[in-house]
Design a protein that fits this description.
CATH topology: Methane Monooxygenase Hydroxylase, Chain G, domain 1
Number of strands: 0
CATH architecture: Up-down Bundle
Distance between the termini: 68 Å
Shape: elongated
CATH class: Mainly Alpha
Order of helices and strands: HHHH
Largest sheet: none
Strand content: under 5%
Helix content: over 70%
């Protein structure tokens, strides 16, 4: 059963590595403004998330059986705990897998944070640009009671009605 867990953890680690690669690729796609590539990347991420859920359910099932056979609760059965209860070379393999998973998850957090900051700066830039355009055109948007923009306020010196 521990061998099955190791195989599953290898697959989880590979899946997380794939997600990390996609997240790194995603930033370049956003910079390049490639909508088609962004849509494709999002589909790939959705597929990876689904795969991760399936792997997690399988891991929980294996851990439940292992916990029962060892006479401990599933909450107590961490990889560190399991390392101490199995013989070599499985203990070393579990230690390596735990370390690899921790590393890739930390990298994912860092790339996600970098992407979040980049996207927030991009949104702030767009808001600033829109504010500048509004200022230059001398108009500010007015909202009606319904929450919609007042259509009369959408005229601009920079936009031709013929366009």
């Amino acid at each position: 059963m521990v061998n099955d867990l190791c195989d599953l953890l290898h697959r989880e680690c590979d899946t997380y590595q794939s997600l990390l690669s996609l997240l790194q690729k995603e930033r370049k796609i956003v910079v390049d403004c490639s909508i088609e590539d962004l849509i494709q990347t999002n589909k790939e991420k959705e597929n990876l998330v689904l795969k991760m859920r399936i792997l997690e359910q399988s891991r929980e099932a294996i851990l439940e059986k292992l916990a029962e056979s060892m006479g401990v609760s599933q909450a107590e059965l961490t990889l560190s705990h399991l390392e101490g209860r199995v013989k070599e070379p499985l203990a070393s393999e579990l230690r390596t897998l735990r370390s690899n998973l921790a590393d890739v998850l930390q990298s994912i957090r860092e790339v996600n944070e970098g992407n979040r900051v980049f996207l927030q700066h991009s949104v702030d830039f767009v808001k600033g640009s829109l504010a500048l355009i509004r200022h230059l055109t001398g108009s500010s948007p007015k909202y009606m009671a319904s929450g919609d923009l007042d259509g009369d306020q959408l005229d601009s010196r920079f936009v031709s009605e013929k366009a």
